[in-house]
């Protein structure tokens, strides 16, 4: 009787163990199948958007503020992407404000030079007027005509100086338009020319027929910043050369700004485009100039690289696509 009872209990226990094994294996199988089915869902809903956001952060770091496409998923991912787009919009506004602040800083630097440039035509106008007033009764018609022509020429010269300054300072929305590159370079050189010390020569080698889709005002800021940096790096005598050429095979335009200055230490080359990084003495620069240059070039779908050797000089090379729509 006792043996039957033991045998019965043993069989019952074995049956329970077998049942538990079956349930465990079934549960494990269902979990694996469920996990396999959930992987694509998790990838689509969470992993893929996070990777997309990661790529976007890299684009933002390179100056591209294109918003992320928002899909109507009605979940946390959609809200994260919408919040990220708001952040992108704010960053773009801050970059524009930073550009304008740098522009106003440049205006402060240029003002004394502009005053000097205006002083010359005003002096010439004053001299011509004094001659006409003093010799009014006995001056001949030919001399009067020559003096008046000189006054008109100097008025136009002063007007162009003021117009260039106003054009530079005006706030405009970013927009690309067909622009003759040489004209932008010449305007930048004219604005900063009074701050170029004697013995420093600016040489232009830009084809007159080279035209690109550019935001002229912002590209002018690029050249102003690069020339200003070159001027601070050169101990006269020296040279700043600006040259450009079209590379039709690569469908791009190469623009080079190089100087014969003191160069940049190799250990600092990787940081020169970082905001607030400067190689000048404390208080002598904001460290924003090259950061702004980098952002403007990137906004034109271009790129900028730098090469430098200490005591030999520095070369900035910009590449712009030939065809870029506004």
Please name the defining characteristics of this protein:
326 residues, alpha+beta, Heat Shock Protein 90
Structure write-up:
The strands form 2 sheets. Strands 2-4-5-7-6 form a 5-stranded mixed beta sheet, with helices on one face. By secondary structure, it is α+β, with helices and mostly antiparallel strands. The chain starts with a helix and ends in a 5-residue tail after the last strand. The longest helix has 60 residues. Among the domains are: 75 residues, no CATH class; 147 residues, Histidine kinase-like ATPase, C-terminal domain (Heat Shock Protein 90). It is built from 6 helices and 7 strands; from the N terminus they run H-H-H-E-H-E-E-H-E-E-H-E-E. The mean pLDDT is 78.
Strand arrangement within the widest β-sheet reads 2-4-5-7-6
Q: Which band does the percent of strand residues land in?
A: 5-15%
First-to-last CA distance: 98 Å
List the total number of helices: 6
Largest sheet: 5 strands, mixed
How much helical structure, as a percent, in the residues?
55-70%
Shape: elongated
Structural class: alpha+beta
Q: Element order, helices and strands? A: HHHEHEEHEEHEE
Unreliable residue stretches: none
CATH architecture verdict of the domain at 180-326: 2-Layer Sandwich
Identify the CATH homologous superfamily of the domain at 180-326.
Histidine kinase-like ATPase, C-terminal domain
Mean pLDDT: 78
**CATH topology (level 3) name of the domain at 180-326:** Heat Shock Protein 90
């Amino acid at each position: 009787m006792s043996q039957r009872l033991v045998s019965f209990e043993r069989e019952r226990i074995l049956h329970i163990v077998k049942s538990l094994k079956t349930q465990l294996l079934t549960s494990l199988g269902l979990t694996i199948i469920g996990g396999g089915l959930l992987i694509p869902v998790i990838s689509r809903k969470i992993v893929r958007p996070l990777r997309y956001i990661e790529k976007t952060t890299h684009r933002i770091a390179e100056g591209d503020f294109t918003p992320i496409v928002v899909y109507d998923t009605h979940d946390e991912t959609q809200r994260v992407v919408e919040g990220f787009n708001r952040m992108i919009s704010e960053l773009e506004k801050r970059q524009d404000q930073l550009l304008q602040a740098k522009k106003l800083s440049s205006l402060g630097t240029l003002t004394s030079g502009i005053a000097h440039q205006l002083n010359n035509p005003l002096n010439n106008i004053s001299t011509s007027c004094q001659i006409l007033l003093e010799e009014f009764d006995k001056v001949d018609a030919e001399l009067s005509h020559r003096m008046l022509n000189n006054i008109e020429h100097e008025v136009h010269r002063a007007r162009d100086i003021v117009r260039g300054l106003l054009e530079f300072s005006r706030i405009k929305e970013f927009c690309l338009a067909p622009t003759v590159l040489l004209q932008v370079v010449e305007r930048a050189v004219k604005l900063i020319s009074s701050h170029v010390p004697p013995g420093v020569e600016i040489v232009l080698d830009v084809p007159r027929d080279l035209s690109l889709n550019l935001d002229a005002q912002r590209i002018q800021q690029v050249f102003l910043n690069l020339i200003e940096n070159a001027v601070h790096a050169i101990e006269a005598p020296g040279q700043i050369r600006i040259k450009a050429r079209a590379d039709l095979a690569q469908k791009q335009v190469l623009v080079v700004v190089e100087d014969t200055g003191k160069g940049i230490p190799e250990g600092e080359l990787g940081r020169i485009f970082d905001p607030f990084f400067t190689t000048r003495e404390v208080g002598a620069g904001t460290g924003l100039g090259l950061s702004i240059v980098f952002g403007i070039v990137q906004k034109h779908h271009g790129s900028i690289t730098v090469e430098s050797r200490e005591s030999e000089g520095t070369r900035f090379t910009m590449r712009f696509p030939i065809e870029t729509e506004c």
